[in-house]
Design brief:
Strand order of the largest sheet of chain B: 1-2
Largest interface: A-B, 84 and 83 residues
Strand content of chain B: under 5%
Order of helices and strands of chain B: HHEEHHHHHHHHHHHHHHHHHHHHHHHH
Helix content of chain A: 25-40%
Oligomer: heterodimer
Distance between the termini of chain B: 51 Å
Shape of chain B: globular
Strand content of chain A: 15-25%
Radius of gyration of chain B: 25 Å
Distance between the termini of chain A: 60 Å
Largest sheet of chain A: 12 strands, mixed
Radius of gyration of chain A: 22 Å
């Protein structure tokens, strides 16, 4: 009797579990997970430079494409809904942090097939590496004409779809007026001892891009991060934690992409609370990080799905999607849209040298780790 | 002779086909769920896998020449030794006060030990940050009291990790040492007192040596739990750039260095398994603690002058370590924003309401409950199979299966997670990205906990009942079903509860194995984000975990009170608590 009951219970619960845990992609996902999606028998370091060919298998159904998308979960949800308005359920969105998306793609590539049709992720160097291996399909969207010149690169293998700025944030309650930083160099000063936080570049792809951008300003002399270490800057798992720690007053300042700060300020405003956070647009320049979109090359993809993939790229570059992203604080790549509220029109920005970053990734990572790790 | 054996075996097979079948299935499941992942992990570190045969020691030379690994190793040992020392100190002192003195507030001590057991280690770390961070509870209180107050305190350090982990593990010591003290022969202590020794001298010369083996073995156990911990060093040491072995496994994974993560996991596995089995060996061989449980009412030491000191110590220590963390988390969970001053208009229930409205939060809670119930149920079935084999049959390997199935208990959860990634995401067997990879790993973690709970009951059972059933013609399986199972009912229930409690607090396994849609409570707690809910949200979920654990543990207490006449089964609870 008892056994029977247990068996029945297990069967019932497992049915519930499968029903409950299916890929209900309409939900909002956690961005900054430390997940290693599908890492298989991967060896150390970055992917080997083998001559790999686009996969010859396509394991998904026709009429429905899979999109890997980093960024806020609620944004991914909004974009999916907007795209599906007149089309029905045609895309499945997998939302994870930029780092997780990259890991998943490398792991899947080694296993033989990247399970995404379209990838929309947090910085260009991953796309450059994919392109070098011939894993991206070329598609020049008609919307490209509406793009600002500075965002028109990638030869159609990938296209910047929005941008964010690496900036400094500080807490107005805790930073005296004469202390307010105006430049990246200001953060090197010793009075910031024990008052700074930053996201760990070895864990976050965006943090890695911002860190490289800052070092680019200082010609990679690494004095900036040596000063961060000397100031006992707090190392956090993700960029959003930087905003959180600055908001609670645990630290007084930090640096991260601007859009998360804008969203945090907006959320407080909505709840009738004055946010203690303020953005500094550094004198040397905010670090501009483009977030590209691209189609994964796959020869055996059904025509129908290739068409959908192209339509999705067009959609993301369209004024409609760009406006949605603008409301989440992202900078539009189009000429015909305003800047998000809270971003001044005269922002001086520095574009990360992605070629240099791709070529020297290992060295940059090692230098960073040597300085910031192992106190 | 040989023929005789074979014939016996065959007739056995014929008579008990179904019990052989049940046994074989159990063997296969244990091999698949417990042995296969761990073997994959170890073989992988030597360059051997299903799809790749390339034996090498390269990974180990890399690890041993890596400076950061050595530092992490040193930090791990440092934390392990000191946290164990302090846990022993707190636990033994409190146990001595409760069992040997006439201290008045024994119930208070026991209540706080209970509450401490209900607070997961990571939640302690969250509370620590809440209190000690800059602009935290302490800083703000002191700044309000003193003008121009400057708060200088390093919130994130090895010392913080050591303190939090020693507090988190001392209840284990308290329970084990209380048990030992209750069971030591009091006549030895009485004799010492009668011969003119002082109380202090008796305590140090008689009582302590008597319970020394218990202290030693429980110390080893605490040590193995402390070095296995991931959440606390990740929260309290990593922000200062300090790494231990468990956090280094995670960070090497983040750098896509799976080989390094694998090798580190094997090292961690060897270290933990060695210490754990050493602990088991000592436990088995301790002789003089349980000579007799004296029936005479023991003479309690009267606390005279020292009463005030003892009271102050107990109240302050326990208030700080169990009630205060709960209070501070509750306050933060009720705050509109944690940086706002504490006042009525800044209080809200919206963080709790949000837990059940936000789709991710709700999904996380739902997943943890489902994975927990499912994992516990399957683990119970497999554990029953193991018990059937090792106690009711003479099948090949019946002596080893229990030890083998206990392996996951000795493993740090991080190691189980890495083993699962390697074992279940290969091109041959791929369940990565599904909830099953988490559930399967939970099953392997829960099997030893259930076993621990049931073996105690089985061993104290009267074998003649079985014989009676067998003589009356019942098969082995039938005997097991009709005689053994009913007697295990309450044991099964409490084991299931314990496993479920772990599922509510477990972090590393789900953090390593979750994918979109399969987030658990542990993942939600670990990944704070500001535009999602931040500190207040994490506090609310922590309060929810603590209160539900308190409720579940109260049910557990009731159930085990009913089976008190049976052998002590509380040990399984230790494992459940130290996660």
């Amino acid at each position: 009797m008892k056994m029977k009951l247990i068996v029945i219970l297990v069967v019932l619960v497992s049915m519930f579990a499968l029903g409950g845990c299916g890929a209900d992609t309409n939900d909002v996902a956690l961005e900054n997970n430390t997940n290693v999606e599908g890492v298989s028998n991967k060896q150390e370091g970055t992917p080997k430079k083998a001559e790999e060919q686009p996969a010859a298998t396509y394991s998904r159904e026709a009429g429905r494409i899979t999109v890997y998308m980093s960024g806020p979960g609620s944004l991914a949800k909004r974009l999916e809904e907007a795209f599906e308005t007149n089309r029905g359920d045609v895309i499945e969105v997998l939302n994870a942090s930029g780092g997780s998306v990259a890991k998943r793609i490398w792991a899947e590539m080694e296993a033989g097939e990247i399970h995404a049709d379209v990838v929309f992720s947090s910085e260009p160097s991953m796309f450059m590496a994919l392109n070098e291996k011939g894993m991206l399909a070329q598609y020049i969207s008609p919307e490209t004409k509406a793009l600002e010149n500075q965002y028109n690169f990638g030869d159609g293998y990938f296209t910047p779809a929005n941008a964010r700025y690496g900036i400094i944030v500080y807490n107005v309650d805790n930073v005296k007026k004469d202390e307010v930083p105006t430049s990246w160099a200001d953060l090197k000063k010793p009075h910031w001892n024990n008052r700074l936080a930053l996201a760990d570049a070895t864990q976050s792809a965006t943090a890695f891009a911002i860190s490289s951008g800052v070092e680019q300003i200082f010609d990679f002399d690494w004095a900036f991060f040596e000063a961060m270490n000397a100031n006992n800057a707090m190392l956090l798992k993700s960029n959003s934690q930087v905003a959180e720690k600055a908001k609670t007053g645990e630290v007084d300042a930090g640096f991260l992409p601007h859009d998360g700060v804008l969203r945090s300020i907006n959320k407080d405003e909505k709840d009738g609370i004055e946010s203690p956070l303020k953005i500094v647009w550094p004198k040397e320049g905010a670090i501009s990080i483009q977030r590209p979109i691209g189609i994964i090359a796959n020869e055996s993809r059904p025509e129908e799905n290739m068409k959908l993939s192209k339509e999705f790229v067009d959609f993301i570059l369209s004024a409609e999607a760009q406006e949605i992203m603008r409301k989440f604080g992202f900078i539009s790549v189009r000429t015909d849209l305003k800047l998000p509220n809270g971003v001044p029109s005269d922002v001086h920005s520095i574009v990360v040298d992605w070629e240099h970053l791709s070529a020297n990734e290992e060295d940059i990572r090692k230098s960073y780790e040597k300085i910031m790790g192992g106190n | 002779m040989v023929i005789k054996i074979i014939r016996a075996f065959l007739s056995n097979l014929n008579a008990n086909k179904s019990s052989v079948l049940a046994g074989t299935i159990t063997y296969l499941l244990v091999a698949l769920l417990v042995l296969y992942p761990l073997a994959t992990l170890v073989l992988n570190s030597f360059g051997i896998s299903i799809i790749n045969y390339n034996p090498t020691l390269q990974a180990y030379t890399n690890v041993f020449t890596d400076v950061n690994t050595w530092i992490a190793f040193k930090n791990t040992i440092h934390i392990g030794v000191l946290a164990t020392f302090f846990a022993l100190l707190y636990g033994t002192t409190l146990a001595w006060i409760v069992t040997r003195t006439n201290f008045r507030f024994k119930k208070f001590i026991k209540f706080n030990v209970f509450l401490t057991l209900c607070i997961p280690s990571y939640v302690y770390a969250v509370a620590w940050i809440d209190i000690f961070r800059r602009n935290g509870r302490l800083d703000r209180t002191l700044s309000a009291l003193f003008e121009n107050f400057e708060y200088v305190f390093n919130t994130y350090s090895l010392a913080a990790v050591i303190f939090v982990l020693s507090v988190n593990t001392y209840p284990i010591v308290f329970m084990a040492v209380s048990h030992a003290l209750n069971n030591t022969n009091r006549s030895l202590e009485d004799a010492s007192m009668l011969s003119g020794a002082t109380r202090l001298k008796t305590t140090f010369k008689i009582t302590l040596p008597l319970i020394a083996p218990t202290i030693f073995s429980i110390g080893l156990f605490v040590f193995s739990r402390v070095i296995a911990n991931f959440g606390v060093p990740a929260a309290l040491a990593f922000p200062s750039g300090i790494e231990v072995l468990t956090t280094r496994v995670l960070s090497s994974l983040n750098n896509l260095q799976l080989q390094l993560a694998t090798t580190l996991s094997v090292l961690l596995l060897v270290l933990s398994v060695t210490v754990f089995y050493w602990h088991k060996f000592v436990m088995k061989n301790k002789r003089y603690t349980t000579i007799s449980s004296s029936t005479s009412k023991p003479q309690l030491i009267e606390l005279k002058k020292s009463k005030a000191y003892v009271t102050i110590f107990v109240v302050i220590f326990q208030f700080l370590t169990s009630i205060l963390p709960f209070i501070t988390l509750s306050l933060t969970s009720l705050a509109r924003r944690s940086h706002l001053p504490l006042s009525f208009q800044n209080l809200t229930f919206s963080n709790f309401i949000g837990l059940f409205q936000n789709p991710i939060a709700l999904r996380g809670i739902k997943n943890s409950i489902t994975f927990g119930i499912l994992g516990a149920s399957i683990a119970i079935i497999i554990a029953l199979g193991i018990i059937f084999i090792s106690y009711k049959t003479k099948m090949f390997g019946h002596k080893f299966i229990e030890t083998v199935s206990s392996l996951p208990m000795a493993c740090p959860s991080v190691v189980l997670g890495i083993a699962a990634i390697l074992a279940w995401s290969s091109s041959v067997l791929n369940i990565y990205g599904t909830p099953w990879i988490i559930i399967i790993t939970y099953i392997s973690l829960f099997i030893p906990i259930v076993l621990k709970n049931l073996v105690g009951i089985i061993e104290s059972q009267e074998p003649s009942l079985d014989s009676a059933a067998r003589v009356s013609g019942a098969s082995r399986l039938r005997t097991f079903k009709d005689i053994t199972l009913p007697s295990l009912k309450s044991g099964i229930f409490s084991a299931g509860l314990m496993a479920f409690i772990i599922a509510l607090r477990e972090i590393p396994i789900s953090l390593l194995l979750f994918s979109y849609g399969n987030e658990t409570i542990g993942v939600l707690m670990f990944n704070v984000r500001s535009d999602f809910g931040g500190t207040e949200f994490v506090s609310a979920i922590s309060v929810l975990v603590i209160t539900s654990t308190v409720l579940l543990r109260m049910i557990l207490k009731r159930v085990s009170a009913k089976q008190r006449n049976k052998k002590d089964t509380s040990l399984g609870g230790f494992y459940a608590s130290s996660n």
